[in-house]
Amino acid sequence: MDLIYYQTFREVALRQSFTRAAEQLGYAQSSVTTQIQKLEKEFDVQLFERYGRGLRLTSAGEELLKTVTQMLELHQQAKEKLARQGGGSLTIGTIDSLAAYYLPPFVQRIRHSYPELNIRLQPDREDRIVHRVKEGELDFGLMLVGEPTDPALEWTEIREEPLVLVSAPDHPLARLDAVDLRRLSGEEWIMTEETCNYRMMLEKLLRSEGIPYRISLEIGNPEAVKGCVAAGGGIAILPRLAADAELGRGELVALPFSHPDLRLSLQSCIHPRKWVSHALHTFLDSLQPDEISF
How confident is the model at residue 84 (pLDDT cuts 50, 70, 90)? Predict the structure, then answer.
């Protein structure tokens, strides 16, 4: 059983309310209810009963609370000990392009400082990352967003990340001195998955301006997107960091296009009640712009 369920149980017991516990933990009330139901199913007992307008522990709940309190105290002691030693684990939710092109130097640096630290990079969709940070499954998330998507989390902007419109060097648009939205009418696009933030921004812009477009290929992996564009399959929009190497080698070109509605920033998000170990604090600090150059 996940330790977070016991933390939720303790909070409900303390607050005598699912609603107040959810507010304190920063979860949806439905999440708190589900966690308590799973605990009751695990132990095959009822943990709470209605008492007037509130809740109170059953006798089984009182017994479990004694054990849970000791368990969580031991867990906190273990975390503090491991933080001093630099051990433990660090689980980071991020997107494919950041896992591949942005995070590697930071991961190597933290591994050098904390050689016993186990680091897990878990690429996922932006909405899933936000959900998993809220549920305590991830230590923090790192994403490219237009604006923070959930005010319940703490967001830190690290830097702006330019988006570039790329094509093969022999594409007709590459011969132009400037490309505006009208020039994109009818072009074939190679797109990332439909849940990708910058794809959604692009499609919203094209639709709002009445620019017809056709998606000739949809691929979730940015490496595959670049390969298909370089082979002459169409045009694509990507974060600059994901296309830098190919642009430098001349395999792709950045079309002379920009638009104020196509802006992203690199941001981290963390649960406001997340316990921050020394290693996690060091890693988050290292992401700030003055810590490493590109």
Answer: low
125 neighbors 195 (Cβ within 8 angstroms): yes
The three-state secondary structure class of 269 is strand
Q: Give the C-alpha distances (Å, rounded to integers) separating 203 from 206, 222, 230.
A: 5, 18, 22
Q: For residues 136 and 130, give the distance between their C-alpha atoms in angstroms, rounded to a whole number.
A: 10
Supply the pTM of this predicted model: 0.65
Contact assessment for residue 86 and residue 114, using Cβ atoms and an 8 Å cutoff:
yes
User: What is the DSSP secondary-structure string of 138-192?
Assistant: SSEEEEEESS-S-TTSEEEEEEEE-EEEEE-TTSGGGG-S---GGGGTT-EEEE-
Contact 113, 83 (CB under 8 A): no
Structure tokens at 135: 């549920």
Residue with tokens 């290292």: 286
Model pLDDT, residue 237? 95
Using CA atoms, how far apart are residues 164 and 228, in angstroms rounded to an integer? 16
Radius of gyration of the chain (CA): 24
Q: Following DSSP, what letter does each residue of 128-151 receive, concatenated?
A: HHHHHHHTTSSSEEEEEESS-S-T
Is 80 exceeded by the pLDDT of residue 255?
yes
Q: Are 193 and 199 in contact (CB under 8 A)?
A: yes
**pLDDT band at 31; cut points 50, 70, 90:** very high
